[in-house]
Amino acid sequence: MKALISLAAVSAVMLAGCSASVDERANDFVDVSYSLCAAKVRAFSQGDDGKIRVVCENDSYFSVKSQQTLTVMNEINGAYCQGKGFSHFNERAEYYTFTCLNDKSFNIPK
């Protein structure tokens, strides 16, 4: 069920696309972030480098470059973390590095 909610949230972000205001896109990212870190979002920011950074109330965090990465995160969450979310997730130039909430860590190529 959680995966279905995550998929719906990611779909909403993708449909919102460029037509949404900055505030609307931020709200969409926060909604998706909630499903990926399994907690309320404590902080959300987008830096000058374009990266989106999210810190959750359970001290989970992640950093992504784009909305498309959120879709990938949702797939990774289901495949590697059994839909339970991440304690951290970082997008690197050639791979993703993350730790599931069950403390399993992975580095996978893009």
Descriptive key words:
alpha+beta, disordered N terminus, 6-stranded mixed β-sheet, globular, Lipoprotein, 3 helices, signal
- Compute the number of helices: 3
Biggest beta-sheet profile: 6 strands, mixed
Portion of residues in helices? 40-55%
Inertia-based shape: globular
Quantity of strands, as a count: 6
Radius of gyration: 13 Å
Helix vs. strand class:
alpha+beta
Summarize model confidence as the mean pLDDT: 77
Question: Main sheet: which strands, in order across?
Answer: 1-2-3-4-5-6
Keywords: Signal
Protein name: Lipoprotein
Can you characterise this structure?
The protein is α+β, with helices and mostly antiparallel strands. The protein is built from 3 helices and 6 strands. Strands 1-2-3-4-5-6 form a 6-stranded mixed sheet, covered by helices on one side. A hairpin with a 5-residue loop joins strand 1 (41-46) and strand 2. The longest helix is centred in the N-terminal third of the chain and has 16 residues, at 22-37. Residues 1-17 have low confidence and may be disordered.
In brief:
Helix content is 41%, strand content 29%.
List the helices and strands and how they pair.
Elements: H1 2-16, H2 22-37, E1 41-46, E2 52-56, E3 61-64, H3 67-80, E4 86-91, E5 95-100, E6 105-109
Parallel strand pairs: 3-4
Antiparallel strand pairs: 1-2, 2-3, 4-5, 5-6
Helix pairs in contact: 1-2, 1-3, 2-3
